Amino acid sequence: MNLIILKLAIKNLFGRDKTSLLSILGLAIALVSTFYIYSYVSFELSYDSQHKKAKRIYRISGDIIAAENTATHAVLGPLLSPELKNHFAVVEAFTRLIPIRQQTVLEYHNQQFIVEEAYSADPDVFNIFSLEFIYGSNDNIFNNPDEIVINESLSKKIFDDVNPIGESLIKDGQLLKIAGVVKDSPENSHHKLNVLFSIGNRWSKLENLSPVQISEGYWMPSAYHFILLKPNTSIISITDNFDSFYKKYMAEFGNAINAKFKPVAVSLKELHFSRHMDYDLQKGNKTYIYLLIMIGLFILSVAIINYANLLFTQNIIQSKKIGIKKILGASHFTLYKQFTANSFFFIFTSFVLAYLIYFFSLSALISVTNIDKTVFHILKIFKLSAVLLVALVLITSSISFVNQMGKEGIKLLHPFSLKVLGPTNYRFGISSTVIQYTLSSILIISMIIITRQINFLLQSDMGFNKENILIIDLNNLAGTGKNINPFLNEIQRNPQIKNVALSTNIPGNIMGTSHFQIQRNGETVTKIVKTMGVDYQYIPTLDLHLKEGRNFAKTFKDSSFNSIIINEAFIDFCGFNGDMIGQKLAGDSKVIGVLKNARFNSLHNPAEPMVLYLGNNKMKYLNIKLESSDLKNAVQSIEKTWNNIYPEVLFDTQFLDNRIALLYDKDQQINTLIKLFTFISLLISIMGLVNLSTILTKSKTKEIGIRKANGANTLGILLLLNTKFIKWVAFAFILAIPAAYFIMNNWLHGFANKINLSWWIFGLAGVLVFGIALLTVNLNSWNAARRNPVEALRYE
């Protein structure tokens, strides 16, 4: 009996018409989309889970609370975590991660190697984080200040497969001995520990410092602090009892700047999705995760609905066979086994096709979206597939079984007709179409809004011209002790260069902060603002516009913080009114200019108050404004000049517009995925509409023949077949509008700068939905409308 059931299931699978093939293809595409989304979402949610002690690891950051504003600093003073361990018994170990610039250059035998994310760290970094040693071990490591630990990728790049323990690398002229090689940090790590330097005994000699200076050592933004709690202890033992620590170690400096401090403890596993902090690395966005999960469920639901429609159709077609089996005494269990076998082979075939599409399309998806390939794990896909296969087979086989269970065998012996199984099946077809197009319409509206928002972020005026600005990182030069002036003198003679300027930072990077004290109603108020050092040419180089006042100038003998230029956000932030020029801040700092609409941070957040001051000779970045005619040759010419003057220093550049675009890299990535999945959802909905229109067209075959025999034309037949579909699609779109508005309005709340939800967005989505639906139905109905009425009347 079981062998017969299997043979019938295989025969049913291969003996079906084009509607079955479309349903198989639709389900396969939906499964591929589910694989992609599941891989991406599980990757994002698994950040830092590779560390065995992750549940006990916390990063300690802090709210710097002034009278009228609060700044959250991810990095704090270097004295904080060592004293936390001494003061709180729940702390088992600590480590500081002190970032060594955004990029670090290491030298070996006159070859230079760029490293992203390098940190100085305490010895317990190897006890707190699960770093797997390939060469060396964590025993007695970092006892000496001249030790370095590198990752596997860098080791292979420099030493191939040779053990490099004991070899030396040069950083900023200092010789460092390799004490270990660890495996690369996974991509889903908030802090990637690619290269670690020993902190040594820095900040251990405090006897020459004043009490205020020592207290400042707990505040000043310089290190990420991680603590490992003892087992069975809670972080609230620190956060709820921090007052005594603050009064003993931090209050001196807090009183000096008229601010208070509140610790912000974030679990390592929650760090990737924690709130925005100054000096922090780029984080994830849970809203995008929820959005992708919703899209995945939408797509899978649409495909399952298509298959459910197919099941109802197949039940109609096979009703005679089922009726005969019932008359001959087939039990409910036997019928259920047959339905289960049919569903299993159908869904299993979809899975096989899905795997083929997945493997062949994966490289294309990675190249289009720039998603790292480590996101996709085949083992995870197989585990998900097993769960989905069982669930889908049980659900779909139950649909067929329940649909047939209450019907007597004799009533199933009628010829093929939609009336065989009653009006329920017809209503289900209508309902499924409405649901499919409601979901697809929501996705289309969302796609248009998200695309417009991302474009708005990329194209918005930040108050300066970011085009054709070449940035040269001077951190590599600083370690050599050489001066930038010879290079500046040489490139300023280059006709391809319009202007050059120096700065301590660049827009889009982590900015410095400073606190100002101002008088408000006879009271001293502390304000915490962003700061950046620039030279005399910075404002004209970036085409920054002054709303009032002047630029820095040698003729006015401007120097350091004595003369400052602020942006408009600074004025709003401090609550000033009237003319700002000449205003004194923090004692001797005099405002000489106000920048119009200038902002240097991501548009995800409100414009940050900014102070530009005249920097010293230790600038970190060179900003070069290029002529737009031939950028490639201009960069090559600059590189040639650099190599002639500094042959041993790496030429490290980036364009400013590319740097700013990185602020929205995750947004663009998600936008690409949403576009792709919206198209897939629409494609599957079209397949479902083709199937349903095919069924309904067949049911009206004789009616069409009679109408044509009585003189009805092709247009009239098309109207007959299409009117109901248009009503269903219209109803679906009406349902989609409030749902899409609610979802997108909530999503846009996450942006400080955002587009308006204009009516035309919904109108454009409606045109797309109706246009696609009409085209789909008409292509399928055309043959039926033009069919010979004689053939139609012979049907059945």
From TrEMBL:
The chain crosses the membrane at residues 21-41, 288-312, 344-366, 386-405, 426-450, 676-697, 725-744, 759-779. It is a multi-pass membrane protein. InterPro entries: ABC3_permease_C, MacB_PCD, Macrolide_Exporter_MacB. Keywords: Cell membrane, Membrane, Transmembrane, Transmembrane helix. The keyword Iron-sulfur does not apply. Residues 20-198 form the MacB-like periplasmic core domain. It comes from the Bacteria. GO terms for molecular function: transmembrane transporter activity. The keyword Transmembrane applies. One of its GO terms (cellular component) is plasma membrane. It holds the Pfam family FtsX. Residues 676-789 form the ABC3 transporter permease C-terminal domain. It is found in: Cell membrane. Its main location: membrane. This is FtsX-like permease family protein. It comes from Maribellus comscasis.
